[in-house]
Amino acid sequence: MMGDPLGSFRVSSHKQNREGLVGAQSRQYRATNNVWTPSSFGIYSAASAWDKFRKSKPTVGWSKLVWYNQNIPKMSFILWLVIKCKLSTMDRILTFASSVPVTCVLCSSATESHCHLFFECPFTDGIWPSVLFKCGVPWLRLPWPLFVMWATSCCRGKSLSSIVLKLSLDVTVYYVWREWNNRRFKNSSQPISTHLSPPLDFD
């Protein structure tokens, strides 16, 4: 039985027509749709946009001190601001408002700064050593930049003791700054003993 002598030609012709149609559609798509070049797939995503426009810098040594799986985000955010010295302490406000009082609102005995608040201030010096004592860690009185280096070294790894110490620092810094805000803007204050007594209020 003889086969269709034109069969192979029809199949080949149909294949060529289909490939030509697909190619034309692809060219038309590229011509009428924007292609997001930062992505290897040509499709926009928030992650690819972030990678495109952010300034890439090496990871800082203290990153694991602030950002870790068990952290409390709003408390870690305050710690991040403190480490970068970006809180609105009075010494910083003084640079653009010369008439403001610069005395620490927590102790009323020294110029308010990041180094003073954490933990040179008599008020905060009554909190942090007590927290460390409960963690079984001795307190070395260090200026804030050296303290960050010390804490980073002490909190390496994922052990329970490391996580507890990082959380303790998070909570302490957060409550110090909340007390600062209450005294500065609400004319409300609490004694040191209140900050050392559970349960903790995370509002």
- The rounded distance between the terminal residues' Cα atoms is 88 Å
Helix count, DSSP H or I runs of 4 or more residues: 11
**pLDDT below 50 for ≥5 consecutive residues: which ranges?**
199-203
Q: Could you report the average pLDDT, rounded to the nearest whole number?
A: 81
Summarize the biggest pleated sheet.
none
* Structural class determined from secondary elements: mainly alpha
* SSE string: HHHHHHHHHHH
Radius of gyration from CA coordinates: 30 Å
Walk me through what this model shows.
It comes from Malus domestica (Apple). Residues 1-21 are annotated as: Disordered. 19% of the residues are buried. Helix 4 (73-83) packs across helix 10. The chain has helices spanning 7-32, 46-53, 63-66, 73-83, 90-93, 114-120, 122-125, 128-135, 144-154, 160-185, 192-196. The protein is globular, with a radius of gyration of 30 Å. It has eleven helices and no strands. The chain is mainly α and 203 residues long.
